[in-house]
Amino acid sequence: MSDNRPSPHPLPWLARPAARTWRCAPAPTEVRAFHAALPGYSPTRLAELPAIAAELGVGRVFVKDESRRLGLPAFKVLGASWAIHRVLAEHPESAGDVEAPGHLTLIAATDGNHGRAVAHMARLLGQHAHIFVPRGVHPRAVAAIAAEQAKVTEVAGPYDEAVRHATEAADAPHTVLIQDTGWPGYERIPGWIVEGYATLCAEIDEQLAAHAVISGPDLVAVPVGVGSLAQAVVTHYRSRPSGRAPALLSVEPANAACVLRSLALGEPVSVTTGHTLMAGLNCGTPSGLAWPHLHGGLDAAVAVTDADSIRAADRLAGLGVSSGPCGAATLAGTRAALTGTGREERRTALGLDANSVVVLLSTEGTDANPHATAAH
Ligand SMILES: Cc1ncc(COP(=O)(O)O)c(C=O)c1O
């Protein structure tokens, strides 16, 4: 193992042994076929990285590389495309020429990737988009949203405030809020977004089988903002009636660890967020829709610093994987959990040994969030 130095600060870490036996209902199966029929669809690659496996002291490490997904540099379009498809099916009057009456304006708040995905789908499907962007999102990420012909409103406050602005704007006629976080009374559309992420997990199953990993992974690490992606991952791995369940590890920025804090308290709470290069994870409140799944099915939570995530992004770049700060957070978090002071206890909590198979979700490429290069 490369890094056994004592860490200067105690690791923000929480383990929850009961999660492995928690079970929930599966996601609908038709989502995969929907994505497969979209122009330009192909499964993103699952790269095996033996050098990282050696560093982490496990058998095999795979990285799910979402740096190119349906023409965009992050996984988010999986959720936006399925949710918008479901919404438009309920609004047949919106089909046709974009200037004709009846067209919808799709509204979303975003730390970058979700808003770009909504704007992209709106453009492809002949609808309008209005995207609310909080402070701290890189200007090039904002420009990429505008380049999808969306109206962009920059909000001076944090992500939660951008969500409030977007929700208010969606009171107007012919608008629909396409938000990737849910709360009481607003659950159907974020639920479809979560369903959309199931395609990523289904691809991993097939790709691991092709790598002769028949019984599935032992650990899956997920980057967490509001926890909708983690909800999809929990749903995937905790809805199997039998068989071995992997440990599921959430990774958040130390400055925005709302899920870690909520799990520690046993109830969803908001935290005050600061600045982080992991812009897509800079969320202060867990999705209310995701919370029962996060509380029930996550085995462990860890938080990492920007420096950790940038180091991990550099390491992945050296191995040929384009990974932005949010994507590389999973390598940083897994490294923090499996190495360094106290590692034996954490490895035991995750049920890992030298033969274990680890999957890291790298959810964005460097193009999605140019902070990483800007920091150098
Ligand atoms: C690249 C990237 N990874 C992970 C996430 C986290 O997803 P969630 O907010 O569903 O937890 C986001 C959210 O925007 C993201 O943009």
From TrEMBL:
Keyword Lyase among UniProt keywords: yes
Keyword ATP-binding: no
Required cofactor names: pyridoxal 5'-phosphate
Keywords: Lyase, Pyridoxal phosphate
EC number: 4.3.1.15
GO molecular function, one term: diaminopropionate ammonia-lyase activity
Pfam families noted in UniProt: PALP
Coiled-coil positions: none
InterPro entries for this protein: TrpB-like_PALP (IPR001926), TrpB-like_PALP_sf (IPR036052)
Protein name as catalogued: Diaminopropionate ammonia-lyase
Species in which this protein is naturally found: Streptomyces chartreusis
